[in-house]
Specification:
Elements (H helix, E strand, L loop, with lengths): L1 H23 L6 E8 L4 E8 L13 E2 L4 H14 L15 H4 L4 E2 L2 E2 L6 H6 L19 H7 L7 H11 L14 H15 L3 H10 L8 E2 L16 E2 L2 E2 L15 E3 L1 H12 L6 H7 L3 E4 L2 E3 L4 E4 H4 L7 E7 L3 E6 L4 E6 L6 H17 L1
Antiparallel strand pairs: 1-2, 1-15, 3-9, 4-5, 6-9, 7-8, 10-11, 11-12, 12-13, 13-14, 14-15
Helix pairs in contact: 1-12, 2-7, 6-7
């Protein structure tokens, strides 16, 4: 039986590496990372492919930009503070934010909703606030994504991002009356965490999550460094542009600026779903789902994907975790006890990353 397991795993690894090679062969993909861990299936695979622009190969020692996977860390941090009695999910955000942030934050059809926004609304993207990353501003001015590309030395502060959102966008609906994925909400959550904890967000992440879990290669981009970051960050691309070193990436903060590795992110997932970081009650609250789109629902910094609803050819399985705009994935499949983490490090690869996730999971369950 042992030999059969070894042969089966060798076959699975070969099939998964074939999938990764197919992604790497695409013109706009320069590096691919994928990690799979399952204690019950005896799987512990970490595959890294591709190279840096100078020709040197990427490796497991190179952490990667996780983008919106960071929302799960921000939501988990809120959960930690809830468990400690420092705040409550139903608290109005005006309790923690200064007037210069709250004034003009949410005015819709002449009604000021600033005092109606709850922490839960921000966590679940139901506040109605606009997304400052939206490329179409109400006044025709240049959006932040284009500013990131053209003013790469600009270092964005959180309050500056909120002011940008208020100046160039308008709310979409009253709090609790709809769903709209927006980074604006998570910047506000980061500011609240700093106000309540009296610590910079990156320090709180390090003290309460990274250090206790020995996530030594994980840190918040441009604001801290890993305790034991062995290699430079894998290069991140927007189309044909390599943007990893842009200071303007500071526009991505509490909504998704964490740098990490597959091993570290699996360690985080095990701790989160094992209630090492938050209580069972809080974890259950984080998994109260609202409709996002076909095949996807959203909780508090967590997304659930039902693959068969996305495409009948996909496996009839669900995963819980988060995705990022650069083709990053961090998910757990409870039915199969499989943790999956990966990235294509390309901003145009979000859809391809979901397809890859489904196909990799399918290979894991077929052997």
């Amino acid at each position: 039986m042992l030999n059969f397991i070894i042969v089966a795993q060798e076959g699975m690894i070969a099939e998964i590496n074939k999938l990764l090679d197919e992604e790497l062969d695409k013109d706009n993909v320069h590096n691919v990372f994928f990690s799979i861990y399952s204690p019950t299936k005896s799987i512990d695979l970490h595959s890294v492919k591709g190279s840096f622009s100078d020709g040197s190969l990427v490796s497991e020692a190179n952490p990667f930009y996780t983008a919106s996977i960071g929302k799960t860390f921000t939501a988990t941090t809120l959960g930690i503070l809830v468990d400690r009695g420092k705040l409550h999910f139903d608290d109005p955000i005006s309790k923690y934010l200064p007037d210069e942030i709250m004034d003009g934050l949410h005015i819709l059809n002449g009604v000021d909703y600033k005092d109606s926004i709850r922490l839960s609304h921000l966590l679940q993207h139901t506040s109605g606030l606009p997304d400052y990353f939206n490329r179409e501003t109400i006044d025709g001015s240049t959006g932040i994504f284009d500013l990131i590309m053209t003013d790469k030395e600009h270092f964005w502060q959180p309050s500056e991002l909120i002011q940008f959102s208020k100046a160039h966008f308008r709310p979409n609906f009253a709090p609790g009356k709809g769903y709209l994925y927006t980074d604006t909400e998570y910047v506000l959550l980061g500011m609240i965490i700093e106000e309540v904890s009296k610590m910079p967000l990156h320090d709180f992440f390090a003290k309460e999550i990274f250090e206790p879990l020995s996530m030594n290669s994980t840190y918040l981009n441009l604001r801290s460094t890993g305790k034991n970051a062995l290699g430079k960050m894998a290069e991140l691309y927007a189309g044909g542009y390599e943007i990893s070193t842009f200071k303007s990436l500071s526009a991505d903060w509490a909504g998704g600026a964490i740098i990490s590795t597959g091993k570290d992110l699996i360690r985080f997932q095990i701790a989160l779903f094992g209630t090492e970081l938050v209580s069972e009650e809080t974890l259950n609250k984080m998994q109260e789902w609202t409709y996002e789109t076909v095949g996807m629902t959203y909780g508090y910094g967590l997304r659930k994907i039902k693959f068969s609803e996305l495409d009948p050819s996909f496996p009839n399985l669900e995963v819980i975790g988060h995705s990022g705009s650069n083709g990053t994935s961090m998910y757990y499949c409870p039915d199969e006890d499989i943790y999956l983490v990966g990235t294509l490090n390309q901003l145009e690869s979000s859809k391809d990353a979901v397809i890859l996730l489904a196909r990799v999971l399918e290979k894991c369950t077929n052997f």
